[in-house]
Structures
1.
Amino acid sequence: MMGTPTGLPALFLRLPSPPGSSMSPPTSSRGTSTPSPVPILSLPPALLALAAVSLLAVGCGGDAPGEDGAPAGSEALVSGGPGHPPSAPAQAFLANLALHCGSAYSGGLTLEPPGDDMLTGTEELIVHFRECDGDTLRLPFHIELEETASWDRSRTWVLTPASGDRLELRHDHREPDGTPSERTMYGGFTETPGTPERQDFVSVERTEESGFPRGWRIEVVPGERYTYGTTRRGEWSWRIDFDLSRPVPVPPAPWGH
């Protein structure tokens, strides 16, 4: 069984080095210049305040974490939203994601169970941190279709605060004409505080079907790695990783948006 990684997976060791000096803007593997990310000041006030705290936490690596795994001082984070503010680790987690708003990143498949054929493992995957509206983050997930030299733009991950100090994850699936897919908006809620770098979302439906805990996990190490996948009994069962150190050109809007 595979535990939580401490660094980037081997997938990214074969990425080409950035051209020019360390100050050169990054380029994609297709040679296209990367647009500058959306300025952090354009974020909504709540996420802007959280992002500022996250930047300080990243810059001050010597700060010891709190007992709950949150960065030191996280108890002073502002409310995640009116009515049902999430817990401090959840706030910091959303802030870590929001740091990348406006940018897109390339990744690939790093773990799959036997018999799973959703991905080939050789296609390019792109996550776009596209929308940070209030407390809601929308991250379209684009899949390269190698056989047809086209893209599947049907999926968007939607993250929002929920009642009871929880976070909610939903999967917005659309058809090419923009209409909702037959199976869409499925997902789950966190049941533990999590940490600023990891949140686990429980699928009640899948857990009841199998008789053991199942759900999804998202990890983010700002400027380094974004990871999404499914879990069984608390371990990764399917997983994709994205390199947050190298932005790529922003893709077209996902279907229906």
2.
Amino acid sequence: MDFEKVNRITKVHHYKKKGFSNAKINRMLGIHRNTVRSDLQKKPKEAIFWVKSLTNRERKVEPYKETIVNWLSNEPELSAAQIEN
């Protein structure tokens, strides 16, 4: 599980309870203002389940992974742009 995300969400809520503005929180934590807003919409306890759901999702590349690996092993000089075509 990605504890950094859970920790970040907890910190955002902590600073908000202390009275800091969203702009101040994003500067203090070095995250985008939209991330602060998004994190405030999640309750800290819900954040654990949200992060767990991220690890269970299948990546978009998974169905094509075997094909891409074959291309790269057969033609190591190919660039990503050439493979995309």
3.
Amino acid sequence: MVSLALRPRSPSELVDAAFQILRAHYPQFVMCSALAYLPWLVVQVIWYSDPARLASISPQASVVFGLGIWLIFALMSAVLIVCASQAYLGEPLDVGVAVRQALPRLPLVLVAAVLRFLLMFIGLFLFLFGALYMATRYFATTPVIVLEKRGIGGAFSRSSELSRKRKRHIFNTIGLASLIYWVLAFGVQIVAAMVGNLIVQALVGAAVTIMVYPVVAITEALLYFDTRIKSEGLDIELMTGALDGAPPHAPATP
């Protein structure tokens, strides 16, 4: 079991810590990714099996398709973030417990994901800056919903509070993890595209996502804890609780 010190970290240190957690619990994280992604893979295979449908796809359908992908990644992140929290706080990593904790929160996670998608879409009209601002300001909505059990409004306001004066740190951290993921994903997809079969490309893309995307979700969870450590002294609070014999769960409120 990997043991990580509870301390403030730089973007590169957070991503490195995410890889350490992923390596230590790789089968569990891959299982979580597969459970969340497989339904979307079925939709892709059905969609790609009809060339006529692909040829007549409209811009509106493309937006819906993009929203669907966004929601699937939100679902994956919800369970993966709970697993990452267990590992980071020194608890046994239990996929069943993570699923049971995340499952009741999934409707709120999906609503929050749609709202973030809309805010970022609107932000695109401000020459990309607005979209990046929305992404960094509301980076922690999913961790707050599944770990602190807050509602939609509480999650957005809490994320806004945690991101205050730390948006560059948040952007650099999520950007680094996402860059690693997308470089690997695009590299493999380019090779798969040589086959010329869309279903094969979908299967290869699913395999890469299931195996590699967990590092992005783990980084998101660690970034959430990192902002709490820097803003609220969460590390000191948890260490004090450990000395008092309290369980290692992170307090839900400051």
